[in-house]
TrEMBL record:
One of its GO terms (biological process) is rRNA processing. Residues 188-286 form the WDR36/Utp21 C-terminal domain. This is WDR36/Utp21 C-terminal domain-containing protein. It holds the Pfam family Utp21. The lineage of its organism: Eukaryota, Fungi, Dikarya, Basidiomycota, Agaricomycotina. It comes from Ephemerocybe angulata. GO terms for cellular component: Pwp2p-containing subcomplex of 90S preribosome; small-subunit processome.
């Protein structure tokens, strides 16, 4: 940025930012002064002076928050609506929170995560390309534990040569090839506390839809059985009688058999009656013959 002389002294601009509606332009100078300008009239509003010199700014447009990086190793968050410092984040002292890190041969100038934290894009000094990094936690189980500074491994930048360098690129993504010691669960503070799982998010999120998964499995089994048995038969015409049951059976053959059985029973009754008549006649003839 070009230096500007104000009040007999020079001030270098280290950062510029505009709000989401382009109503205000914020200019941060090296001496830690935030200047607010009306975007339409270019009139400077009352300024905000920070207690330390500034080196850069980052604006969060949706929330209207401006993060100012200062030389005293403090990040100050300024609300553009009230123009006041709402948060101050000092030097990080909780080194036990460091769970993963890697170093590159070239210094990174900028980095950004994808919305789902699946990939990390970085840019480096003396390089015109953007280097994507994959988050291993999305593809494998990662053990979260604190690491020391001497455990940080140095990896090479992703290759841009093509498919011939695929194996080397995959090898560069492996930060630690040496096997890690088994992690032992520390003793619980209380027996009623619950230990959180270390599995990936894709594993335990399926429990939220367990009933849907069970229903899908049952439905697929039923559909497979129906497919194996064949398509369901078409409905019979309304004028054809059918028998009750799961399978479709016509009652035509049954009625025919019933008629034949009824005719056979009637014929047998006639024969039986005829036999009864002959037996009576035979008895009378026998009686007459015996009387003679």
């Amino acid at each position: 940025m070009r230096a500007r002389r104000v009040g007999g002294r020079e001030r270098s601009v280290v950062g510029l930012a505009t709000d989401a509606l382009n109503q205000w332009l914020v200019a941060c100078t090296l001496d830690g002064t935030l200047n607010f300008y009306d975007f339409r009239t270019a009139v400077c509003e009352p300024t905000l002076v920070l207690p330390s010199t500034a080196t850069g700014v980052v604006l969060q447009r949706e929330g209207g928050l401006l993060a100012v990086v200062c030389d005293d190793l403090v990040v100050r968050v300024v609300d553009l609506e009230t123009r006041k410092v709402v948060r101050e984040m000092g030097v990080l002292t909780g080194f036990e929170l460091l769970i993963d890190a890697f170093k590159t041969s070239s210094v990174a100038t900028s980095l950004s995560f994808s919305p789902t934290n699946d990939f990390l894009a970085t840019s480096h000094i003396d390089s015109l390309g953007v280097f994507p990094w994959a988050n291993r936690a999305q593809y494998a189980d990662i053990m979260f534990k604190g690491i020391q500074d001497d455990e940080i491994a140095e990896v090479s930048l992703p290759s841009v040569q093509g498919t011939s360098e695929e194996e080397e690129a995959l090898a560069a993504l492996k930060v630690n090839d040496s096997p890690t010691d088994a992690f032992s669960t520390p003793p619980q503070l209380d027996s009623e506390l619950i230990t959180l799982t270390l599995l990936p998010r894709s594993r335990w999120q399926t429990l939220l839809n367990l009933e849907v998964i069970q229903f899908s499995v049952v439905f697929s089994i039923v559909a497979t059985k129906q497919t194996e048995r064949g398509a369901a038969p078409e409905h019979a015409p309304f004028f054809l009688p059918t028998l009750p049951g799961v399978e479709t059976r016509f009652a035509i053959d049954t009625e025919k058999k019933e008629k034949e059985a009824a005719a056979a029973r009637a014929s047998s009754r006639r024969l039986q009656k005829k036999g009864d008549v002959e037996s009576v006649f035979y008895e009378k003839m026998a009686a007459c013959c015996g009387a003679r």
